[in-house]
Amino acid sequence: MSLTPEDTFQTGLLLELEQVVAKELDRHESMAKEWFPHQYVPWSEGRDFDGPLGGEEWSLEQSKLSTEARESLIVNLLTEDNLPGYHNAIARVFGRDGAWGTWVNRWTAEENRHGIVIRDYLTVTRAVDPVALERARMRHMEQGYEATHGDSFLHGAAYVAFQELATRVSHRNTGKASGDPICEQMMARVAADENLHMIFYRNLLGAALEIAPNETMKAITDVVKAFEMPGAGIDGFLRKSVIIANAGIYDLRLHHDDVLIPVLRKWNVFDRTDLNGDGEKAREELAEFLEQLDAAATKFETRREERRARQAARKG
């Protein structure tokens, strides 16, 4: 079977970027700190559940978390649970050989640690219904994961650059919203990993922009316009995301100001002089989309403040 021009382009780009991957992998390994999930879980709070051990059945009053923090932690955990799907998607695009394969495996191992520590914390502290959580995990993982942003290398790299930063922001804010110093410390530790992952992918795509600016710009715009978090397939995700947004844990303003804009600025997207044709057109589309997103974020903020004011007035 003969290769298409797109196949040839992708293969050449992957080969050209392998040295960048090796360099970024070395940087990551030098900066990443070893840590152990079991050290972030308050095991002394644990006790047996109902079932074979004849312990106490879970009930809502056992949870000391707010509804907002609880829903956010569930979304964060179920997202991490679908890791096999993400590993497959990334390995299919990046490949399993050389520095690419080493990175994909390292990334997967670190992300798996996040799921371990969050689940242990939620179970030990009885923060969520463990039966409902397990059933949700089964349903979500049975769906698998398929990227909605295109399956080219450039689309995949652009997506994870934004997604890792979005996850970092969500984890940090979830910890703060929990009102539990142990949870906040745990989520800050997880977020630190996500930040290093973001830097890896951000630097990788930055290098791709230098090599193939027009094609990379087109991928960036496609990803930004169609962006959704990988947990979007979770049952009740829309309701949960509204609760999370209303709590200010992750909303349109944070997505625009703290995720998209910093990464785009780092890539110098709007000041580049090496774009033409489809690349320039994509940049114009991106600028227009960001204006619309900014307006939507402002509208959401206004409505949220109005709702909060009405709620405060009723309580008063």
TrEMBL record:
The keyword Lipid biosynthesis applies. Keywords: Fatty acid biosynthesis, Fatty acid metabolism, Iron, Lipid biosynthesis, Lipid metabolism, Metal-binding, Oxidoreductase. Gene3D superfamilies: Ribonucleotide Reductase, subunit A. Pfam families: FA_desaturase_2 (PF03405). The keyword Electron transport does not apply. InterPro entries: Fatty_acid_desaturase-2, Ferritin-like_SF, RNR-like. Its cofactor is Fe(2+). Homodimer. Belongs to the fatty acid desaturase type 2 family. PANTHER family: ACYL- ACYL-CARRIER-PROTEIN DESATURASE-RELATED, STEAROYL-[ACYL-CARRIER-PROTEIN] 9-DESATURASE 7, CHLOROPLASTIC. This is Acyl-ACP desaturase. It comes from Actinomadura fibrosa. The lineage of its organism: Bacteria, Bacillati, Actinomycetota, Actinomycetes, Streptosporangiales.
